[in-house]
């Protein structure tokens, strides 16, 4: 839409308020709102001012004036506000330097798309994430000087088969939640409501289903689209999923591993590059892909441990990335094989369907940074003709020690991933897509606020192991 069309859209929908949304450094939506009377065509160029000093990872308080510039193509009606509210996603601008703010993650994604075009390799990067999440009925957690606990519960939880009250059974067992029909799958209507709200917001949905774990694990898959648009859609997706759950008396988390001893939630990310309307990943090489696609895979595999700091950016991410729970920890590629960290889907021989699936990311990532980083790693592979080696067409979860020798693995902790990013990030700096300041700030923030924060706190299970030693 043009700015004028947005104003007409707002009028047609009897808009009362306008909500300005933008993503913070870590990937969460922030917002402020103005009455519709303040929303004029000029705001699409002049923006609306706010204090950026309280946004995580952004400016200091002595240099904090920022501008939110709405993108007219992102305008929708917010489905969760009482008043009729127009929602727009914004780019962030530095009013003193009169340019886009370098640490605005959306700007990073825009630069990644521009770098692809400037490289001459392609003109469009398509991305299709498969975000998984848990739907719980109750959650409690706290951390004090002398106590720490969490408690989650779900009517579907396998642990509730013996509960009293309105227990009617039919609960998915651990690791047996994939595709059961009702009444075992009790969340069909809720997921459908989520899908319908997404469709109203312009997101094309391909499918929804219960996932492998007990206690309400779910997946809703979006149709692939261009990198920036998909990053916009993913934050909208999370917003819709959480708010639909809340208005139904439930709660959603995208934590990769909220449940012990069951499968975690990942976000497999399908990727391909096109040029002049033609897919570049289709060819006559292994699994029907092109040499370009193989080089792209080579770049992802080479930089995967560094990528992990952006695609799996929480300490909890590495509770999922452990052997034994269908976690893609082995840095290898294969066709159809879901034990490899990169899979080549074989559902169709149509060249337009040829893509790769990077299986290690999870939905705690900032999608603007994670999608951009994977694109930059893949392009580095193409530019430098990085050979990914031979495919691994075997179950990597069950390899004997001698068979697994030489196969690299994902980092075991966030700290390892941050160390890898610190040592390997030149590929991100090409074309000034990522600045050195972004990389340094990301590493420093994650080490101080997350790695060190976990390191200095006793874990409840340590009391079970060590209290009476």
Plain-language structure description:
- The protein has 469 residues and is an alpha+beta fold.
- Helix content is 32%, strand content 22%.
- It contains 13 helices and 19 strands.
- The strands form three sheets. Strands 8, 11, 12, 13, 14, 15, 16, 17, 18 and 19 form a ten-stranded mixed β-sheet that branches. Strands 1, 2, 3, 4, 5, 6 and 7 form a seven-stranded mixed β-sheet that branches. Strands 9-10 form a two-stranded antiparallel ribbon.
- Strand 1 and strand 2 form a beta hairpin.
- Helix 6 packs antiparallel against helix 8 and helix 10 packs antiparallel against helix 12.
- The longest helix has 21 residues.
- The chain is globular, with a radius of gyration of 23 Å.
- It starts with a helix and ends with a helix.
Features:
globular; seven-stranded mixed beta sheet; 469 residues; ten-stranded mixed beta sheet; alpha+beta; 13 helices; 19 strands
Shape: globular
Ranges with pLDDT <50 over ≥5 residues?
none
Question: Nearest-angstrom radius of gyration?
Answer: 23 Å
State the major sheet: 10 strands, mixed
Report the span from N to C terminus: 67 Å
Note the beta-strand portion: 15-25%
Output the number of helix runs: 13
Would you count the extended β strands for me? 19
Which assembly state applies to the chains in this document?
single chain
Structural class: alpha+beta
Q: Mean of the pLDDT scores?
A: 94
Helix content: 25-40%
């Amino acid at each position: 839409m043009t700015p004028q069309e947005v104003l007409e859209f707002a009028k047609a929908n009897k808009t009362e308020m306008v909500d300005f949304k933008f993503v913070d450094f870590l990937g969460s939506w922030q917002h402020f709102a103005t009455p519709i009377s303040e929303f004029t065509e000029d705001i699409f160029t002049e923006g609306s001012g706010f204090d950026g000093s309280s946004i995580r990872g952004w400016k200091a308080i002595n240099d904090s004036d920022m501008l939110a510039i709405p993108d007219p193509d992102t305008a929708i009606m917010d489905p969760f506000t009482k008043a009729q509210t127009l929602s727009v996603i914004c780019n962030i601008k530095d009013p003193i330097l009169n340019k886009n703010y370098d640490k605005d993650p959306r700007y990073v994604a825009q630069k990644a798309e521009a770098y692809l075009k400037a490289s001459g390799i392609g003109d469009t990067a398509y991305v299709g994430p498969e975000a998984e999440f848990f739907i719980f009925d109750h959650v409690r957690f706290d951390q004090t000087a002398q106590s720490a606990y969490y408690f989650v519960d779900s009517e579907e939880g396998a642990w509730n088969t013996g509960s009293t009250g309105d227990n009617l059974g039919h609960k998915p067992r651990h690791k047996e939640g994939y595709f059961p029909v009702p009444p075992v799958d009790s969340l069909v209507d809720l997921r459908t409501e989520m899908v319908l709200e997404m469709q109203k917001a312009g997101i094309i949905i391909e499918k929804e289903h219960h996932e492998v774990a007990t206690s309400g694990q779910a997946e809703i898959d979006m149709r692939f689209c261009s990198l920036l648009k998909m990053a916009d859609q993913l934050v909208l997706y999370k917003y819709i999923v959480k708010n639909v759950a809340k208005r139904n008396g439930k709660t959603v988390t995208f934590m990769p591993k909220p449940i012990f001893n069951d499968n975690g939630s990942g976000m497999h990310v399908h990727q391909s590059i096109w040029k002049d309307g033609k897919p570049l990943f289709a060819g006559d090489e292994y699994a029907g892909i092109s040499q370009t696609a193989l080089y792209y895979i080579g770049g992802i595999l080479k930089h995967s441990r560094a990528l992990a700091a952006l695609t799996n950016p929480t300490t909890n991410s590495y509770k999922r990335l452990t052997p034994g729970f269908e976690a893609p920890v082995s840095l290898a590629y294969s066709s159809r094989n879901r034990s490899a960290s990169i899979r080549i889907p074989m559902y169709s021989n149509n060249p337009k369907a040829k893509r790769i699936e990077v299986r290690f990311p999870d939905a705690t990532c900032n999608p603007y940074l994670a999608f951009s980083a994977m694109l930059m790693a893949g392009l580095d592979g193409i530019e430098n003709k990085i050979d990914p080696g031979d495919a691994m067409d075997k179950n990597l979860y069950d390899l004997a020690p001698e068979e697994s020798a030489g196969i690299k693995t994902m980092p075991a902790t966030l700290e390892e991933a941050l160390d890898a990013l610190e040592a390997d990030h030149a590929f991100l700096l090409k074309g000034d897509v990522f600045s050195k300041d972004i990389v340094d700030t990301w590493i420093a923030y994650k080490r101080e606020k997350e790695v060190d924060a976990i390191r200095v706190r006793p874990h409840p299970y340590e009391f079970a192991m060590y209290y009476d030693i």
